[in-house]
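Researcher: We're reviewing a set of sequences before deciding which ones to prioritize for further study. For each one, I'd like a predicted 3D structure that I can look through quickly. This is Plastocyanin-like domain-containing protein. If possible, include the structure in token form so it fits the rest of the review sheet.
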Amino acid sequence: MRKLISWLLCVFAIVVLADSRLLPFGWDVEKMADSKHVQFIVINGNPAPTIRAQQGDTIVVQVRNHLGEDLVIVWQAIEKVINRQCNGADQPIPAGQAVTYCLAAKQAGEFSYQALSKLQRDAGLKGSIVVL
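Model: Here's the predicted structure for Plastocyanin-like domain-containing protein, in token form for your review sheet.
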């Protein structure tokens, strides 16, 4: 009976892992100015993107800070995974440095991310995560 249960657990683990995906993103966060010299924050030259995932996916976001000031990104209501590869925490990313965030898309719903700094948030560093 124990062998059967162990075998079933292994099969279940393989099926669960087969359905999950790794979604890698590389973000270059920087300031830009419009024709009126109003500064805003962009990710890879565009407004903050919406991340789309499926339940069970692992979202991996490498954030490179080109702002010339510290940056803290807060991930709202989605589980962060911290390990050797995923070193992103709610700590400042110094200018010129990068960190990697790993997020577990365990449940369906709409979540968000944003800069901790109100000035950076108002300049456009905020977006959504949609898990289907």
